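Ticket #4471: complex job returned nothing on first submit. Input attached below:
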Amino acid sequence: MDSYLSNLLKHLSESETVWFNKKMELIKAAENEKELFFSFSFVQRKIERKEVVVDQRKWFTDELVRLFFILAKEENDPETFYLKFEKLFITSDSKESIALLKSLPFYPYTKGLLNKASEGLRSNVSDIFKAVAIFNEFPQKYFNEMTWNQMILKSLFIDSPLYSIIGIDEKRNLDLNRMLCDYALERIAASRSINPELWRCVTDVSDNRIFSEWEKVFSNGNDFEKSAIGLISKRSKEQISPSYSMLSNISHEKLRYNTWDEIGEALELERKEL
Amino acid sequence: MKWIDPHIHCSARTTDDYVKMAEQGIVAVIEPAFWLGQPRTNVGSFIDYYSSLIGWERFRASQYGIKHYCTIGLNSKEANNEALAEEVMEILPRFLPKEGVVAVGEIGYDDQTKLEDKYYRAQLELAKEYDMLVMVHTPHRDKKKGTIKSMEVALEHGLDPNKVIIDHNNEETIQDTLDRGFWAAFTIYPKTKMGNERMVEVVKKFGSDRIIVDSSADWGYSDPLAVPKTANLMLKMGIAEEDVVKTCYSNAILAYGQSGQFNESDWEQKTDADPKELFEGNSVLRGQENNQTKTS
Ligand SMILES: [Zn+2]
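Support reply: We reran it on our side without changes. The output follows.
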């Protein structure tokens, strides 16, 4: 947490730092939660929103200030902490919900917040969904297969990047493989393009329509799609289909991106520029 | 031209209304917390209502390029349920400091009962404690007396009249409101109470200082386009453009801008309306084209 604090302080003005330190003391010393609730919301009036990058993750000054406010008073009992979180969460606005969910990995107790994290995934506001889904260790640690798989599928539906999901490769599973193949087949049937990141989690394919799709995009697709097929071909034969031969003829030198992360990152950049 | 509707209950309106409002030049709205027609029976309903004002409804409006703000308060009708009112008073401080909350409101009198008086006063104190503006709903029945009482009580509690907006004025109350230094808001109702033509006469007679036009459109018979319609009528009837802009746009900024939460730059910059923010199947726009380019 030290690197977060020093990074945050670098981005606060003198008067913001004074306010932040004063409130930290007050919250720590407070007998009830009134000071925390008030300061937590008042952040929007006192702290100018600036981007802070820590460990390659993008935060905003107001989000980090809120995180430190939550942690200011040490809780020795998980239930007390959960109750505090619940109270903040049910009255939060969008920015506050995002800060609360983004901060999940930093709480002293997290297990009991599973329902809140899943609630974030169900949000109609994409930034709230992303607060849970991307650059967050919580899903990998606590989500069961069903919740995890829904999160991956929804990411593809709303163009939220897969490469920034922590544990994206480690948590691959057969049911997800099937869901993604079914989804790909739906897109193929509707003649719609498929987000190349989808194939990152597909390791077991037996449907010929998918093979034809790969062939098609490998000859006519864009750099993202071609590179994705290139990466599939690097996998062991058993993982794709023993009988599938097209993949062995692929020459990798011509491909623009060499890892799934590169594809995901470039795709995200392109989406932002559109 | 650009307009502001500083009193409209968007939660009760359809997306068609948002589309038309944006087309007619409405760039920002204020949605005061009010009652829902159906009385609420527990504090959770209030929490969810307030949360939707600062969350979902704001997001919904942004889809149409409209900046959405709100006021938070316990309305006069439901102040009459004392046990519930006590619980609501407990949670109000949790919402007042939120982003985009421009005032405590709409509060005031309905039947002018003792309990209404009690919670009106309690919320005036809250406004003082949080250094906030107040939006006052004046009663429809026994209006003149109720309006004057609302102002006298606010003064008694030491509020600066410049920080209080008295809403639902009419020809009979405006002089009292202006004389005391409060902001005088007018609600344009189709057919009843203040109509567009009457508003034109009010501006002719009283000028444009401290006068604010709004629609108070809600789940009843009302018109979400009342502000642009009245503005256009004023222009047609020969009222100077400067006065039209003041009553239908810039006075609202002068009044509510004092909160620090209501700035012209919020909507002058590109809004967050972003169709990519939508979820397939769940979106509010459901595949419509985003309206933003038309309004800017
Ligand atoms: Zn109203």
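The pocket of zinc ion is lined by residues B 7, 9, 32, 34, 106, 216 (CB under 6 Å). Closing as resolved unless it happens again.
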